[in-house]
Design brief:
The protein is an alpha/beta fold and 401 residues long. It is built from 20 helices and ten strands. It folds into two domains: 1-36, no CATH class; 43-400, 2-enoyl-CoA Hydratase, Chain A, domain 1 (Alpha-Beta Complex), CATH 3.90.226. Helix 4 (63-78) packs parallel to helix 6 (112-130), helix 5 packs across helix 18 and helix 14 packs antiparallel against helix 15. This is 3-hydroxyisobutyryl-CoA hydrolase.
Length: 401
């Protein structure tokens, strides 16, 4: 006979073994406790809190974390004794995104099914979160990037702090903004979404509040006070949760040098139809104004994968006319093309240069914007094969609830 935890270990071991984790599983001696500890749970009154708990990896998301979060949130949604839920991170991050280094090693080992499983699991949870029936709060105290934004922006309330650093830096590693980013970024004011998605540059918690990515702002030292206040609530009413958040909320003032203070210039430069025109516009403004912001933005764009820039621009522009589920289905296709398909070389090269060898000199393919054809961009948005199944989201079920 096996107890529940023992059975979980067997199931996870079999999955990992089948998907190509043989060496890592054996060497790390993964137990059910190790896996469960990647997402901890706190409960108080009628609320529950999911805690992302991989602080050495800045709480980067794994397939198991996605599975566990989905299971927890589903159980909490169905439990009449639970009124609202929260999510936060351990250490100095909320969540730095997906575990891109693990995906890199899976690709190198030839384990495409494990990569499919990761994106399938994460995107299904994000859709579930985006259609969640109970109030949910994300406390973004620290690094919040990539997939970390994906599992927090759909929340009813997003609390940023003075420690929050937000970015969608996927183009810098030869990938594209994903995990619902084409939906989230495309609904920001003006052309801010294009700027964030193409450059991957950071904004602060105060800037998140100013542009609507966050709903509330507090100082980091006030987070324990806010959490205690929320834990004492006995409610499933979002207006009551919001009133409690408002009691702790503070006024946030974006820095004068930040991008939020340059929205007119940003709209002027990033409103063009093509990446080439965006860069040309920035170069004109840099020469005319000598503005360091223009120079920094140009430098970042010229360091980034040319194919990723064109793919990201198209994805975000399409996102303005798509629902969250449509964006996730589209991004799932793109994610597979970018990690195990024809264009996976850029992802591997970007991760190698930024995070493995850390030489900072990725060799992109194609190496320049003029060599990125429209056919390449079109193919990036297509299934890997004609028979490749699209992301299967429970759209009819969730929309009928």
């Amino acid at each position: 006979m096996y107890n529940a935890k023992g059975l979980l270990v067997r199931i996870v071991r079999n999955k990992l073994w089948r998907f190509g984790y043989r060496r890592s599983f054996c060497s790390l001696h993964v137990t059910s406790e190790d896996l469960d500890n990647q997402v901890l749970v706190e409960g108080s009154g009628c609320s529950r809190t999911a805690i992302l708990n991989r602080p050495p990896a800045l709480n980067a998301l794994t397939t198991h974390m996605g599975m566990r979060l989905h299971k927890l949130y589903k159980n909490w949604e169905e439990d009449p004794n639970i009124g609202f839920v929260m999510m936060k991170g351990s250490g100095r991050a909320f969540c730095a995104g997906g575990d891109i280094v693990s995906l890199y090693h899976l690709q190198k080992r030839g384990s495409p099914d494990a990569i499919r499983e990761f994106f399938w699991t994460l995107y299904n949870f994000i859709y579930f979160l985006g259609t969640y029936l109970k109030p949910n709060v994300a406390i973004l105290d620290g690094v919040t990037m990539g997939g970390g934004a994906g599992v927090s922006i759909p929340a009813t309330f997003r609390v940023a702090t003075d420690r929050t650093i937000f970015a969608t830096p996927e183009t810098v590693i030869g990938f594209h903004p994903d995990a619902g980013a084409s939906f989230n970024l495309s609904h920001l004011p003006g052309r801010l979404g294009e700027y964030l998605g193409l450059t991957g540059l950071k904004i602060s918690g105060a800037e998140m509040l100013a542009c609507g990515l966050a709903t509330h702002y507090i100082t980091s030292e006030e987070v324990p006070v806010l959490e205690e206040q929320l834990k004492n609530l006995l409610t499933d009413d979002p207006s009551v949760v919001e009133a409690s958040l408002e009691k702790c909320a503070e006024v946030a003032h974006p820095e004068k040098t930040g991008v939020i203070r340059r929205m007119d210039l940003l709209d002027k430069c990033f409103g063009h139809d093509t990446v080439e025109e965006i860069i040309d516009s920035l170069e004109i403004e840099a020469g005319r104004t000598k503005d360091e912001w223009c120079t920094t933005t140009l430098r970042r764009l010229k360091e980034t994968s040319p194919l990723s820039l064109k793919v990201a621009l198209r994805s975000i522009r399409e996102g303005r006319f798509q629902t969250l589920d449509q964006c996730l289905i589209k991004e799932y296709r793109m994610a597979l093309q970018g990690t195990i398909g024809k264009f996976s070389g850029n992802y591997c090269e970007g991760v190698r240069a930024r995070l493995i060898d850390k030489d900072g000199s990725p060799k992109w393919d194609p190496p320049s914007l003029e060599k990125v054809s429209e056919d390449m961009v079109d193919e990036y948005f297509s299934p890997l094969t004609p028979s490749e199944p699209d992301l299967d989201l429970p759209i009819k079920l969730r929309e009928s609830i």
